[in-house]
Amino acid sequence: MPVNQLKNAVANSWTQSLATLVVVLLICGHSPAPPQDAGSGNCDPRQLDFHGYTFIVPEIINKNAAFAPYLVRWEDYYDRFYFNRDIQKEDNVVEWIERFCKQPTPEDVVDVVYNASYNDLSGLKDRILDPDEKAPIPYPFGGNTFAENLVVSRCEEIINYLMFTRRCEPYVVSGQYSYAPEVRDKAAMEVLIEDGLIAFDSTYSHFVKMRYAYQIIRLAHYAGKWQQTVELYDYLIPKIDRRKYSILSHWILGHVAGALQKMGKYPEAAYRYARIFKDSPSKRTTAFRSFYLRNDADWGRHIRHAEIKKSGQRCISFGPDNPKHLPSKTLQKPMPWTPTIPNWSCF
Asked: Taking all residues of the chain, what is their mean pLDDT, rounded to a whole number?
């Protein structure tokens, strides 16, 4: 065969092969690869579990409709519509704003409550305690409506609390990109718990007391002191005036539920997680993922516990798309009472 004909034949063959490859890629699209065995390294992307496929695009669903979670996986639904936002932070900011008669702006509350350093807050405290009240509000709080409210109202208790949170943060806030298990200084955390208890007892404002209770109980939970977590809850919460609801009551309850679960008290923990799921949008996904009952005996205790708490009212199953949440068929039967929020358990 002449050289030119051979070159043309090779070129045509390569063109046809490339065209076939393009067609195959277009047909296959970007379908997920089948799950693979997890690698050995902490950063190996194959460690991510395969959860199956979603065939309905969540954006076409009315997320406020009661049936919405049935059409997609629950975790997809809540992750997509609620937890790309930091609802916990948003709700907390709203509560701070309401405390100050809706005068501060959300951005200014975030700057003080979340972004200001310990030294920044210490400087603001010095200005609050200035007897002459002549010094300007320190940098970086110039023009900050929330800082101005704190200074004008001489809110020393709130500044003391915010400074306490900065001391707690290294032990309770996870690193954003940390893959290795965290090693916490439990001795230092115990010192903070004791300091928090002293501050709690000396604080007049019940708004601030609730926040100290949250920090203290969270420290005990993260230190792995399960019994102490429950005991601190029983000691602190009755001392707080809770006639005005605070979102922190359910945040605290989540730490108690986690401690009870670690202690092997699965039905008691599940009851609390179900309450959080019902009443706390900012903690709903966490409660859903943490809810766990091992067997039918746990389910039976869980149902009896809920009936005692709710004077005979019954419950339905929690999380139909997750097998670990379901009782056996002997317990899956119609219940005489149906809550307004679908798919949640005894509360």
From this structure: 77
330 in Cβ contact with 296 (< 8 Å): yes
* Highest mean pLDDT: which range of 42-51, 260-269, 330-339: 260-269
Q: Locate 250 and state its tokens.
A: 């359910």
Cα(216)–Cα(198) distance, rounded to whole angstroms? 11
For CA atoms 102, 107, 111, 114, the dihedral sign is positive
Number of H helices, E strands in the chain: 15, 0
* Token digits of residue 256: 């108690």
Choose the weakest-confidence range: 21-35, 122-136, 201-215.
Answer: 21-35
Q: Which residue has the tokens 């389910």?
A: 299
Q: How far apart are CA 313 and CA 32, in angstroms?
A: 44
Longest dimension (CA), the chain: 103
CB-CB neighbours of 151 under 10 Å: 22
> How many angstroms separate the CA atoms of 214 and 249, rounded?
8
Q: Is the pLDDT of residue 30 over 90?
A: no
Angle CA 61–64–67, to nearest 5: 65
**Using CA atoms, how far apart are residues 288 and 117, in angstroms rounded to an integer?**
34
Its sign, for the CA torsion 293, 296, 300, 306, is: positive
Joined together, the tokens standing for residue 187 give: 């001795």
Is pLDDT above 60 for 138?
Answer: yes
Residue 193 has pLDDT above 60, yes or no: yes
Residue type present at position 254: G
Q: What was the pLDDT predicted at 320?
A: 40
Q: Are 150 and 109 in contact (CB under 8 A)?
A: no
- In this prediction, residues 185-194 reach a mean pLDDT of 97
Residue 88 clears pLDDT 70, i.e. is over it: yes
User: How many residues are present in the chain?
Assistant: 347
**Tokens of residue 42, six digits:** 């902490």
Closest C-alpha among 167, 168, 172, 161 to residue 198: 161
